[in-house]
Protein backbone atom coordinates (compact mmCIF):
# COMPACT_ATOMS: atom_id res chain seq x y z
CA UNK A 1 0.00 0.00 0.00
CA UNK A 2 1.43 3.34 -0.92
CA UNK A 3 1.87 5.97 1.76
CA UNK A 4 -0.76 8.36 0.44
CA UNK A 5 -3.37 5.60 0.42
CA UNK A 6 -2.73 4.66 4.04
CA UNK A 7 -4.95 5.81 6.87
CA UNK A 8 -3.55 8.08 9.58
CA UNK A 9 -3.68 5.16 12.03
CA UNK A 10 -1.63 3.00 9.64
CA UNK A 11 0.87 5.79 9.06
CA UNK A 12 1.32 6.38 12.79
CA UNK A 13 1.91 2.66 13.35
CA UNK A 14 4.31 2.49 10.37
CA UNK A 15 6.36 5.38 11.73
CA UNK A 16 6.38 4.02 15.29
CA UNK A 17 7.48 0.58 14.06
CA UNK A 18 10.11 2.05 11.76
CA UNK A 19 8.57 0.77 8.50
CA UNK A 20 9.04 4.25 7.11
CA UNK A 21 10.35 7.51 8.48
CA UNK A 22 8.14 10.49 9.25
CA UNK A 23 10.20 12.40 6.69
CA UNK A 24 9.33 9.87 3.96
CA UNK A 25 5.67 10.13 4.89
CA UNK A 26 5.62 13.93 4.81
CA UNK A 27 7.54 13.93 1.56
CA UNK A 28 5.04 11.56 -0.06
CA UNK A 29 2.17 13.94 0.71
CA UNK A 30 4.16 16.99 -0.40
CA UNK A 31 4.90 15.18 -3.68
CA UNK A 32 1.22 14.41 -4.12
CA UNK A 33 0.37 18.07 -3.51
CA UNK A 34 2.96 19.07 -6.12
CA UNK A 35 1.48 16.57 -8.57
CA UNK A 36 -2.24 17.28 -8.29
CA UNK A 37 -3.00 20.49 -6.44
CA UNK A 38 -2.60 22.58 -9.55
CA UNK A 39 -5.84 20.90 -10.64
CA UNK A 40 -7.63 20.66 -7.30
CA UNK A 41 -6.52 23.94 -5.66
CA UNK A 42 -7.12 22.70 -2.14
CA UNK A 43 -4.20 24.66 -0.66
CA UNK A 44 -3.74 28.41 -0.30
CA UNK A 45 -0.32 27.94 1.25
CA UNK A 46 2.07 24.98 1.46
CA UNK A 47 4.81 24.90 4.09
CA UNK A 48 7.10 22.15 2.82
CA UNK A 49 10.09 23.20 4.92
CA UNK A 50 8.17 23.53 8.17
CA UNK A 51 6.44 20.18 7.67
CA UNK A 52 9.71 18.40 6.86
CA UNK A 53 11.44 19.96 9.87
CA UNK A 54 8.73 18.60 12.20
CA UNK A 55 8.95 15.20 10.51
CA UNK A 56 12.73 15.05 10.95
CA UNK A 57 12.39 15.96 14.62
CA UNK A 58 9.97 13.04 15.06
CA UNK A 59 12.47 10.72 13.37
CA UNK A 60 15.21 11.98 15.68
CA UNK A 61 13.03 11.34 18.73
CA UNK A 62 12.26 7.85 17.56
CA UNK A 63 15.94 7.13 16.98
CA UNK A 64 16.63 8.37 20.51
CA UNK A 65 14.00 5.99 21.86
CA UNK A 66 11.70 8.75 23.07
CA UNK A 67 7.99 7.92 23.28
CA UNK A 68 5.88 9.11 20.32
CA UNK A 69 2.26 10.26 20.61
CA UNK A 70 -0.55 8.47 18.74
CA UNK A 71 -0.31 10.70 15.62
CA UNK A 72 3.36 11.71 15.78
CA UNK A 73 4.73 12.26 12.29
CA UNK A 74 1.32 12.07 10.60
CA UNK A 75 0.92 15.18 8.41
CA UNK A 76 -2.11 17.43 8.53
CA UNK A 77 -3.64 20.30 6.56
CA UNK A 78 -5.35 23.18 8.37
CA UNK A 79 -8.28 25.26 7.14
CA UNK A 80 -7.09 28.78 6.51
CA UNK A 81 -9.44 30.33 9.05
CA UNK A 82 -7.42 28.86 11.92
CA UNK A 83 -4.50 31.08 12.86
CA UNK A 84 -0.97 29.72 12.58
CA UNK A 85 1.98 31.62 13.97
CA UNK A 86 4.30 32.83 11.24
CA UNK A 87 2.25 31.16 8.50
CA UNK A 88 -0.16 33.19 6.34
CA UNK A 89 -3.80 33.02 7.44
CA UNK A 90 -6.25 34.67 5.06
CA UNK A 91 -9.75 33.28 5.77
CA UNK A 92 -9.81 33.27 1.93
CA UNK A 93 -10.45 37.01 2.06
CA UNK A 94 -8.66 39.94 0.44
CA UNK A 95 -9.07 41.58 3.83
CA UNK A 96 -6.34 39.33 5.27
CA UNK A 97 -4.40 38.57 2.11
CA UNK A 98 -1.00 39.41 3.56
CA UNK A 99 -1.63 38.77 7.22
CA UNK A 100 0.80 36.62 9.20
CA UNK A 101 -0.57 35.83 12.66
CA UNK A 102 1.65 36.42 15.70
CA UNK A 103 0.15 33.45 17.58
CA UNK A 104 -1.22 29.92 17.21
CA UNK A 105 -4.80 28.82 17.73
CA UNK A 106 -5.06 26.43 20.69
CA UNK A 107 -5.86 23.52 18.38
CA UNK A 108 -2.71 24.32 16.38
CA UNK A 109 -0.67 24.40 19.59
CA UNK A 110 -2.05 20.93 20.34
CA UNK A 111 -1.31 19.66 16.81
CA UNK A 112 2.26 20.89 17.21
CA UNK A 113 2.54 19.27 20.65
CA UNK A 114 1.35 16.02 19.04
CA UNK A 115 4.29 16.42 16.58
CA UNK A 116 2.11 16.41 13.47
CA UNK A 117 3.79 18.09 10.47
CA UNK A 118 1.57 20.92 9.16
CA UNK A 119 1.52 20.68 5.35
CA UNK A 120 -0.19 24.02 4.83
CA UNK A 121 -3.44 25.96 4.84
CA UNK A 122 -6.55 24.98 2.91
CA UNK A 123 -9.04 26.94 0.87
CA UNK A 124 -12.54 27.88 2.01
CA UNK A 125 -15.42 30.19 1.27
CA UNK A 126 -14.46 33.69 2.46
CA UNK A 127 -14.71 33.78 6.28
CA UNK A 128 -16.33 30.30 6.07
CA UNK A 129 -19.54 31.65 4.56
CA UNK A 130 -20.73 29.32 1.85
CA UNK A 131 -21.18 25.71 0.79
CA UNK A 132 -18.96 25.38 -2.28
CA UNK A 133 -15.66 27.34 -1.87
CA UNK A 134 -16.86 29.45 -4.80
CA UNK A 135 -16.82 32.44 -2.44
CA UNK A 136 -13.08 32.16 -1.80
CA UNK A 137 -11.36 35.38 -2.88
CA UNK A 138 -8.57 33.22 -4.30
CA UNK A 139 -10.53 30.91 -6.61
CA UNK A 140 -12.60 27.81 -5.93
CA UNK A 141 -11.36 24.34 -5.00
CA UNK A 142 -12.36 21.50 -7.32
CA UNK A 143 -13.88 18.20 -6.22
CA UNK A 144 -11.36 15.38 -6.83
CA UNK A 145 -14.24 13.10 -7.90
CA UNK A 146 -15.21 15.45 -10.73
CA UNK A 147 -13.18 18.57 -11.34
CA UNK A 148 -16.18 20.39 -12.80
CA UNK A 149 -17.94 20.18 -9.46
CA UNK A 150 -17.69 21.88 -6.08
CA UNK A 151 -16.01 20.13 -3.11
CA UNK A 152 -18.56 21.48 -0.65
CA UNK A 153 -17.97 24.36 1.68
CA UNK A 154 -16.97 26.21 3.46
CA UNK A 155 -14.20 23.69 4.19
CA UNK A 156 -13.91 22.38 0.64
CA UNK A 157 -10.13 22.72 0.66
CA UNK A 158 -9.64 20.46 3.69
CA UNK A 159 -12.10 17.86 2.33
CA UNK A 160 -10.59 17.88 -1.17
CA UNK A 161 -7.05 17.63 0.24
CA UNK A 162 -8.00 14.46 2.14
CA UNK A 163 -10.14 13.02 -0.69
CA UNK A 164 -7.32 13.47 -3.22
CA UNK A 165 -4.67 11.90 -0.99
CA UNK A 166 -2.81 15.18 -0.42
CA UNK A 167 -3.21 14.91 3.36
CA UNK A 168 -4.27 12.00 5.58
CA UNK A 169 -5.98 14.39 7.98
CA UNK A 170 -7.23 17.96 8.01
CA UNK A 171 -8.83 20.51 10.27
CA UNK A 172 -12.19 22.04 9.43
CA UNK A 173 -14.57 24.39 11.20
CA UNK A 174 -18.30 23.81 11.31
CA UNK A 175 -20.73 26.68 11.91
CA UNK A 176 -23.67 25.32 9.95
CA UNK A 177 -22.23 22.25 8.24
CA UNK A 178 -18.83 23.24 6.85
CA UNK A 179 -17.08 20.07 8.01
CA UNK A 180 -19.89 17.59 7.33
CA UNK A 181 -21.25 18.79 3.97
CA UNK A 182 -17.78 18.90 2.31
CA UNK A 183 -17.19 15.45 3.85
CA UNK A 184 -20.39 14.11 2.31
CA UNK A 185 -19.74 15.42 -1.20
CA UNK A 186 -16.08 14.32 -1.31
CA UNK A 187 -16.54 10.87 0.22
CA UNK A 188 -14.63 11.70 3.40
CA UNK A 189 -15.44 11.61 7.11
CA UNK A 190 -16.24 14.90 8.83
CA UNK A 191 -16.88 15.40 12.52
CA UNK A 192 -18.49 18.37 14.23
CA UNK A 193 -17.69 18.01 17.93
CA UNK A 194 -19.92 19.22 20.75
CA UNK A 195 -19.83 23.04 20.83
CA UNK A 196 -17.36 24.05 23.53
CA UNK A 197 -15.55 20.70 23.57
CA UNK A 198 -12.90 22.09 21.20
CA UNK A 199 -11.31 25.47 21.73
CA UNK A 200 -12.27 28.35 19.45
CA UNK A 201 -9.23 30.37 20.54
CA UNK A 202 -7.49 31.40 17.33
CA UNK A 203 -10.38 30.64 15.00
CA UNK A 204 -11.19 33.76 12.99
CA UNK A 205 -14.71 34.24 14.32
CA UNK A 206 -17.71 33.88 12.02
CA UNK A 207 -20.60 33.09 14.38
CA UNK A 208 -19.22 32.70 17.88
CA UNK A 209 -22.13 30.74 19.36
CA UNK A 210 -21.92 28.17 16.53
CA UNK A 211 -18.28 27.88 15.35
CA UNK A 212 -16.71 24.50 16.16
CA UNK A 213 -13.38 23.16 14.90
CA UNK A 214 -13.16 19.46 14.12
CA UNK A 215 -11.52 16.65 12.16
CA UNK A 216 -11.62 15.76 8.46
CA UNK A 217 -10.37 12.23 7.71
CA UNK A 218 -10.78 9.16 5.53
CA UNK A 219 -11.95 6.88 8.35
CA UNK A 220 -13.88 7.21 11.59
CA UNK A 221 -10.92 5.96 13.61
CA UNK A 222 -8.63 8.57 12.05
CA UNK A 223 -11.18 11.30 12.79
CA UNK A 224 -11.40 10.08 16.38
CA UNK A 225 -7.61 10.07 16.81
CA UNK A 226 -7.44 13.68 15.62
CA UNK A 227 -10.45 14.65 17.74
CA UNK A 228 -8.61 13.47 20.85
CA UNK A 229 -5.51 15.48 19.90
CA UNK A 230 -7.40 18.77 19.62
CA UNK A 231 -10.26 18.42 22.13
CA UNK A 232 -10.33 19.42 25.76
CA UNK A 233 -10.75 22.42 28.01
CA UNK A 234 -8.97 25.66 27.14
CA UNK A 235 -8.90 28.55 29.63
CA UNK A 236 -8.31 30.93 26.69
CA UNK A 237 -11.84 30.28 25.38
CA UNK A 238 -14.61 31.38 27.74
CA UNK A 239 -17.12 28.96 26.15
CA UNK A 240 -14.78 25.98 26.43
CA UNK A 241 -16.30 23.23 28.58
CA UNK A 242 -14.18 22.37 31.64
CA UNK A 243 -14.51 18.64 31.19
CA UNK A 244 -12.50 15.79 29.71
CA UNK A 245 -13.27 15.06 26.05
CA UNK A 246 -15.54 12.13 25.20
CA UNK A 247 -13.62 8.85 24.59
CA UNK A 248 -14.13 8.83 20.83
CA UNK A 249 -11.19 6.57 19.91
CA UNK A 250 -12.46 3.75 22.12
CA UNK A 251 -15.97 4.35 20.77
CA UNK A 252 -14.78 4.17 17.15
CA UNK A 253 -12.96 0.91 17.87
CA UNK A 254 -16.10 -0.48 19.50
CA UNK A 255 -18.14 0.57 16.47
CA UNK A 256 -15.70 -1.15 14.12
CA UNK A 257 -16.59 -4.50 15.70
CA UNK A 258 -19.86 -4.07 13.82
CA UNK A 259 -22.16 -4.74 16.75
CA UNK A 260 -24.95 -2.25 17.37
CA UNK A 261 -27.29 -4.47 19.32
CA UNK A 262 -29.08 -2.52 22.00
CA UNK A 263 -28.50 0.78 20.19
CA UNK A 264 -31.60 2.74 19.28
CA UNK A 265 -31.41 5.07 16.29
CA UNK A 266 -34.02 7.64 15.34
CA UNK A 267 -34.84 8.55 11.76
CA UNK A 268 -35.97 12.19 11.81
CA UNK A 269 -39.49 12.23 10.36
CA UNK A 270 -39.08 15.74 8.99
CA UNK A 271 -35.96 14.70 7.06
CA UNK A 272 -37.02 11.17 6.13
CA UNK A 273 -39.38 12.33 3.40
CA UNK A 274 -36.35 13.85 1.74
CA UNK A 275 -38.28 16.82 0.40
CA UNK A 276 -36.06 18.69 -2.00
CA UNK A 277 -33.43 15.97 -1.74
CA UNK A 278 -32.03 14.11 -4.74
CA UNK A 279 -33.53 10.61 -5.07
CA UNK A 280 -30.03 9.12 -5.41
CA UNK A 281 -28.97 10.67 -2.10
CA UNK A 282 -32.04 9.28 -0.37
CA UNK A 283 -31.42 5.85 -1.91
CA UNK A 284 -27.79 5.82 -0.69
CA UNK A 285 -28.97 6.91 2.75
CA UNK A 286 -31.55 4.10 2.82
CA UNK A 287 -28.86 1.49 2.18
CA UNK A 288 -27.04 2.97 5.17
CA UNK A 289 -30.13 2.70 7.37
CA UNK A 290 -30.56 -0.94 6.32
CA UNK A 291 -26.90 -1.67 7.03
CA UNK A 292 -27.24 -0.18 10.53
CA UNK A 293 -30.34 -2.28 11.16
CA UNK A 294 -28.43 -5.42 10.10
CA UNK A 295 -25.80 -4.63 12.73
CA UNK A 296 -28.52 -4.91 15.35
CA UNK A 297 -29.58 -1.29 15.75
CA UNK A 298 -33.21 -0.72 16.54
CA UNK A 299 -34.46 1.90 14.05
CA UNK A 300 -37.49 4.00 14.94
CA UNK A 301 -38.95 7.19 13.56
CA UNK A 302 -38.74 10.31 15.72
CA UNK A 303 -40.48 13.59 15.05
CA UNK A 304 -38.49 16.82 15.51
CA UNK A 305 -41.18 19.33 14.52
CA UNK A 306 -39.01 22.45 14.79
CA UNK A 307 -36.13 21.22 12.63
CA UNK A 308 -37.81 22.70 9.58
CA UNK A 309 -37.28 26.18 11.05
CA UNK A 310 -33.58 25.59 11.63
CA UNK A 311 -32.43 27.04 8.32
CA UNK A 312 -34.26 30.40 8.66
CA UNK A 313 -33.24 30.71 12.32
CA UNK A 314 -29.61 30.04 11.38
CA UNK A 315 -29.69 32.68 8.65
CA UNK A 316 -30.63 35.29 11.25
CA UNK A 317 -28.31 34.16 14.05
CA UNK A 318 -25.18 33.50 11.96
CA UNK A 319 -25.31 36.79 9.99
CA UNK A 320 -26.11 38.73 13.18
CA UNK A 321 -23.05 37.37 14.94
CA UNK A 322 -20.89 37.79 11.81
CA UNK A 323 -21.91 41.44 11.42
CA UNK A 324 -20.57 42.04 14.90
CA UNK A 325 -17.46 39.83 14.57
CA UNK A 326 -16.40 41.28 11.22
CA UNK A 327 -16.58 44.85 12.54
CA UNK A 328 -12.96 44.35 13.63
CA UNK A 329 -11.83 44.55 9.98
CA UNK A 330 -11.79 48.31 10.08
CA UNK A 331 -8.55 49.19 8.23
CA UNK A 332 -6.97 50.21 11.53
CA UNK A 333 -6.09 47.14 13.58
CA UNK A 334 -4.73 44.77 10.93
CA UNK A 335 -5.29 43.58 7.41
CA UNK A 336 -6.13 45.60 4.34
CA UNK A 337 -6.10 49.42 4.28
CA UNK A 338 -7.37 51.14 1.16
CA UNK A 339 -7.60 54.82 0.15
CA UNK A 340 -5.44 56.31 2.90
CA UNK A 341 -4.27 59.34 0.88
CA UNK A 342 -3.92 61.78 3.76
CA UNK A 343 -7.01 63.62 2.54
CA UNK A 344 -9.80 61.15 3.15
CA UNK A 345 -11.31 60.87 6.61
CA UNK A 346 -10.90 57.76 8.72
CA UNK A 347 -14.52 56.84 8.02
CA UNK A 348 -13.94 57.11 4.29
CA UNK A 349 -10.84 54.91 4.51
CA UNK A 350 -12.78 52.38 6.56
CA UNK A 351 -15.60 52.32 4.03
CA UNK A 352 -13.21 52.01 1.08
CA UNK A 353 -11.35 49.19 2.82
CA UNK A 354 -14.48 47.21 3.63
CA UNK A 355 -15.82 47.80 0.12
CA UNK A 356 -12.60 46.47 -1.42
CA UNK A 357 -11.80 43.77 1.14
CA UNK A 358 -15.07 41.86 1.51
CA UNK A 359 -16.69 39.73 -1.18
CA UNK A 360 -20.33 39.74 -2.16
CA UNK A 361 -21.58 36.97 0.14
CA UNK A 362 -19.80 38.42 3.18
CA UNK A 363 -21.31 41.84 2.48
CA UNK A 364 -24.75 40.28 2.08
CA UNK A 365 -24.47 38.71 5.51
CA UNK A 366 -23.10 41.81 7.22
CA UNK A 367 -26.06 43.79 5.89
CA UNK A 368 -28.58 41.11 6.84
CA UNK A 369 -27.10 40.79 10.32
CA UNK A 370 -26.88 44.51 10.91
CA UNK A 371 -30.52 44.83 9.96
CA UNK A 372 -31.61 41.89 12.14
CA UNK A 373 -29.83 43.44 15.13
CA UNK A 374 -30.98 47.02 14.58
CA UNK A 375 -33.07 48.61 17.30
CA UNK A 376 -36.74 48.10 16.66
CA UNK A 377 -36.05 44.84 14.78
CA UNK A 378 -33.82 42.91 17.16
CA UNK A 379 -36.70 41.26 19.02
CA UNK A 380 -38.61 40.52 15.85
CA UNK A 381 -35.67 38.84 14.07
CA UNK A 382 -32.70 37.94 16.27
CA UNK A 383 -34.87 37.37 19.35
CA UNK A 384 -37.35 35.17 17.50
CA UNK A 385 -34.54 33.14 15.97
CA UNK A 386 -33.08 32.52 19.43
CA UNK A 387 -36.47 31.23 20.58
CA UNK A 388 -36.59 28.84 17.63
CA UNK A 389 -33.11 27.71 18.63
CA UNK A 390 -34.43 26.78 22.08
CA UNK A 391 -37.30 24.83 20.52
CA UNK A 392 -34.86 22.89 18.34
CA UNK A 393 -32.75 22.08 21.40
CA UNK A 394 -35.90 20.80 23.10
CA UNK A 395 -36.69 18.63 20.06
CA UNK A 396 -33.26 17.06 20.43
CA UNK A 397 -33.75 16.54 24.17
CA UNK A 398 -37.11 14.88 23.63
CA UNK A 399 -35.66 12.68 20.87
CA UNK A 400 -32.71 11.60 23.03
CA UNK A 401 -35.12 10.48 25.74
CA UNK A 402 -36.20 7.85 23.24
CA UNK A 403 -33.11 7.09 21.13
CA UNK A 404 -29.32 7.06 21.46
CA UNK A 405 -28.69 8.99 18.25
CA UNK A 406 -30.51 10.48 15.29
CA UNK A 407 -29.65 9.75 11.67
CA UNK A 408 -30.31 11.60 8.41
CA UNK A 409 -28.67 12.21 5.06
CA UNK A 410 -25.85 14.73 5.55
CA UNK A 411 -26.87 16.99 2.70
CA UNK A 412 -29.82 16.97 0.26
CA UNK A 413 -27.68 16.82 -2.88
CA UNK A 414 -24.31 15.59 -4.12
CA UNK A 415 -21.56 17.85 -5.49
CA UNK A 416 -23.09 20.30 -7.95
CA UNK A 417 -21.45 22.00 -10.90
CA UNK A 418 -19.71 25.34 -10.48
CA UNK A 419 -22.13 28.23 -10.82
CA UNK A 420 -25.24 26.09 -10.30
CA UNK A 421 -26.20 27.70 -6.99
CA UNK A 422 -24.53 31.08 -6.86
CA UNK A 423 -27.31 33.04 -8.58
CA UNK A 424 -29.84 32.42 -5.82
CA UNK A 425 -28.34 32.50 -2.29
CA UNK A 426 -31.19 30.37 -0.93
CA UNK A 427 -30.22 27.50 -3.25
CA UNK A 428 -26.74 27.56 -1.72
CA UNK A 429 -28.11 27.77 1.85
CA UNK A 430 -30.16 24.59 1.29
CA UNK A 431 -26.94 22.53 1.31
CA UNK A 432 -27.01 22.72 5.12
CA UNK A 433 -30.67 21.83 5.62
CA UNK A 434 -29.83 18.70 7.64
CA UNK A 435 -26.64 19.83 9.36
CA UNK A 436 -27.75 23.11 10.95
CA UNK A 437 -29.94 21.69 13.78
CA UNK A 438 -26.86 20.25 15.54
CA UNK A 439 -25.09 23.61 15.34
CA UNK A 440 -28.07 25.40 16.85
CA UNK A 441 -28.33 22.89 19.71
CA UNK A 442 -24.57 22.47 20.12
CA UNK A 443 -24.63 18.68 19.95
CA UNK A 444 -22.06 16.56 18.11
CA UNK A 445 -22.61 15.08 14.64
CA UNK A 446 -20.51 13.16 12.14
CA UNK A 447 -20.87 12.57 8.41
CA UNK A 448 -19.87 9.12 7.15
CA UNK A 449 -19.58 8.22 3.45
CA UNK A 450 -22.57 5.98 2.69
CA UNK A 451 -22.51 5.34 -1.05
CA UNK A 452 -22.60 6.85 -4.50
CA UNK A 453 -25.41 8.62 -6.30
CA UNK A 454 -24.75 8.85 -10.04
CA UNK A 455 -21.08 8.21 -9.33
CA UNK A 456 -20.79 10.98 -6.72
CA UNK A 457 -20.36 10.45 -2.96
CA UNK A 458 -23.21 10.86 -0.48
CA UNK A 459 -23.01 10.95 3.32
CA UNK A 460 -25.04 9.74 6.27
CA UNK A 461 -25.16 11.98 9.33
CA UNK A 462 -25.22 10.70 12.91
CA UNK A 463 -26.34 13.26 15.52
CA UNK A 464 -25.73 12.53 19.21
CA UNK A 465 -26.54 14.22 22.52
CA UNK A 466 -24.36 17.07 23.76
CA UNK A 467 -21.01 15.79 25.09
CA UNK A 468 -21.74 12.29 23.76
CA UNK A 469 -19.46 12.54 20.74
CA UNK A 470 -18.53 8.93 21.51
CA UNK A 471 -22.04 7.77 20.53
CA UNK A 472 -21.75 9.46 17.12
CA UNK A 473 -18.32 7.88 16.56
CA UNK A 474 -19.50 4.41 17.56
CA UNK A 475 -22.46 4.46 15.16
CA UNK A 476 -20.44 6.05 12.35
CA UNK A 477 -17.64 3.51 12.71
CA UNK A 478 -20.15 0.65 12.72
CA UNK A 479 -21.59 1.89 9.44
CA UNK A 480 -18.08 2.22 8.01
CA UNK A 481 -17.31 -1.38 9.02
CA UNK A 482 -19.99 -2.60 6.58
CA UNK A 483 -18.20 -1.08 3.57
CA UNK A 484 -15.67 -3.14 1.70
CA UNK A 485 -13.84 -1.28 0.31
CA UNK A 486 -14.48 1.97 2.12
CA UNK A 487 -15.68 4.72 -0.18
CA UNK A 488 -12.95 7.00 1.12
CA UNK A 489 -10.27 4.50 0.07
CA UNK A 490 -11.08 5.13 -3.58
CA UNK A 491 -8.75 8.07 -3.96
CA UNK A 492 -9.73 9.49 -7.36
CA UNK A 493 -6.99 9.56 -9.97
CA UNK A 494 -6.99 13.33 -10.26
CA UNK A 495 -3.81 13.47 -12.32
CA UNK A 496 -5.55 11.90 -15.33
CA UNK A 497 -8.68 14.01 -15.09
CA UNK A 498 -9.45 16.79 -17.51
CA UNK A 499 -10.17 20.21 -16.14
N1 LIG B 1 -22.85 26.83 4.58
C1 LIG B 1 -23.16 27.47 5.81
C2 LIG B 1 -23.01 28.96 5.67
O1 LIG B 1 -22.81 29.40 4.59
C3 LIG B 1 -22.28 26.94 6.91
C4 LIG B 1 -20.93 27.51 6.90
C5 LIG B 1 -20.05 26.96 7.99
O2 LIG B 1 -20.36 25.97 8.64
N2 LIG B 1 -18.95 27.65 8.21
O3 LIG B 1 -23.10 29.70 6.60
Automatic annotation (TrEMBL):
It catalyses: L-glutamyl-tRNA(Gln) + L-glutamine + ATP + H2O = L-glutaminyl-tRNA(Gln) + L-glutamate + ADP + phosphate + H(+). One of its GO terms (biological process) is translation. Keywords: ATP-binding, Ligase, Nucleotide-binding, Protein biosynthesis, Transferase. Coiled coil: none annotated. Its EC number is 6.3.5.7. The active site is at 79 (charge relay system), 154 (charge relay system), 178 (acyl-ester intermediate). One of its GO terms (cellular component) is glutamyl-tRNA(Gln) amidotransferase complex. Allows the formation of correctly charged Gln-tRNA(Gln) through the transamidation of misacylated Glu-tRNA(Gln) in organisms which lack glutaminyl-tRNA synthetase. The reaction takes place in the presence of glutamine and ATP through an activated gamma-phospho-Glu-tRNA(Gln). Heterotrimer of A, B and C subunits. PANTHER family: GLUTAMYL-TRNA(GLN) AMIDOTRANSFERASE SUBUNIT A, TRANSAMIDASE. Belongs to the amidase family. GatA subfamily. This is Glutamyl-tRNA(Gln) amidotransferase subunit A. It comes from Stackebrandtia endophytica.
